[in-house]
Design brief:
By secondary structure, the chain is an alpha/beta fold. The protein has helices at residues 16-26, 43-52, 65-71, 77-82, 101-112, 129-139, 153-163, 222-229, 239-254, 261-267; strands spanning 2-8, 31-37, 57-60, 74-75, 87-90, 95-98, 121-125, 145-150, 169-173, 182-187, 205-213, 234-236. The two termini are 30 Å apart.
């Protein structure tokens, strides 16, 4: 049986084994997909052992995405730009690294939430690895502006400068300055895990704004609840992104692109 796994620490909470089992059922395939906890100080050796054991692919989650990027033999353009890897593919001489997070986010926005990003004003909160991993696919959708806001303004400005050749990108502190509201506001920070929300002006939310938290939880995250209080047209979590990025990984491993909507419909009642 072909073997796959998600690697993280902690990882027991992961929905990935359930998601990939549902994908495999669509094609009548029997695969093994496990959730494996790697030691915090031993990720490279742990993953290389899995390569030698014949695992065909791995998903990588917190806190190992940058370590996966460093150990991969070859990298996709998305992984190179993100400086992080969330998908490892068994190659002839070692692991090949890719990053499907950005594609997962964009596919959720376009196909599940029916939001066009072309010529839209997009605000993304945070300037860490999660944000870096989605900037390229977002900019490929040609928004009018992609504004990166971070608690430390200089970090957001430096990240904006690195991606400025791909479109109109601006960086600032959470307080701005901003010249208008936004069509899409994405929370790329981990603040929801602590039950807090980045301190941005509430007037940035317009009646037609979509608020999107890249985190997901069993109940509405702090950011999702905040967006609803501000009167956003939609305020949603990142479960759709999780399923869509998993579908991209499945395609890289199996050469078949699973249907995501039936999987989302099965997972939503679990939340």
């Amino acid at each position: 049986m072909d073997r796959y796994a998600v690697i993280g620490n902690p990882v027991k909470h992961s929905l990935s084994p359930r998601i990939h089992a549902l994908f495999a059922q669509q094609y009548g395939q029997a695969i093994s997909y496990e959730a494996l906890e790697a030691p915090l100080d031993g990720f490279p050796a742990f993953v290389l052992k899995l390569y030698d054991a014949g695992y065909l692919g791995l998903n990588v989650t917190v806190p190992f995405k940058q370590q996966a990027w460093a150990l991969a033999d070859t990298l996709s353009e998305a992984a190179q730009m993100a400086e992080a890897v969330n998908t490892l593919i068994h190659g002839e001489t070692g692991w090949r690294g890719d990053n499907t997070d950005g594609k997962g986010l964009v596919n959720d926005l376009l196909n599940n939430l029916h939001l066009s990003l072309n010529n839209q004003r997009v605000l993304i909160l945070g300037a860490g690895g999660a944000v870096r991993g989605v900037l390229l696919p977002l900019l490929q959708q040609t928004p009018a502006l992609l504004h990166i806001a971070n608690r430390t303004a200089t970090k957001a400005q430096a990240l904006a400068a690195q991606f400025a050749h791909l479109g109109s990108v601006r960086g600032s502190g959470l307080e701005g300055p901003y010249d208008a509201g936004f069509d899409l506001i994405i929370n790329g920070t981990a603040s929801s895990l602590q039950g807090s929300v980045p301190d941005i002006p509430p007037e940035l939310v317009k009646p037609d704004t979509l608020c999107y938290d890249m985190m997901y939880a069993d109940s509405p995250t702090a950011f999702v609840a905040w967006g609803r209080r501000q009167g956003a047209a939609q305020s949603v979590d990142g479960l759709g992104m999780l399923v869509e990025q998993a579908a991209e990984s499945f395609y890289l491993w199996r050469g078949q692109r699973p249907q995501t909507k039936p999987v989302l419909q099965q997972l939503r009642p679990m939340k």
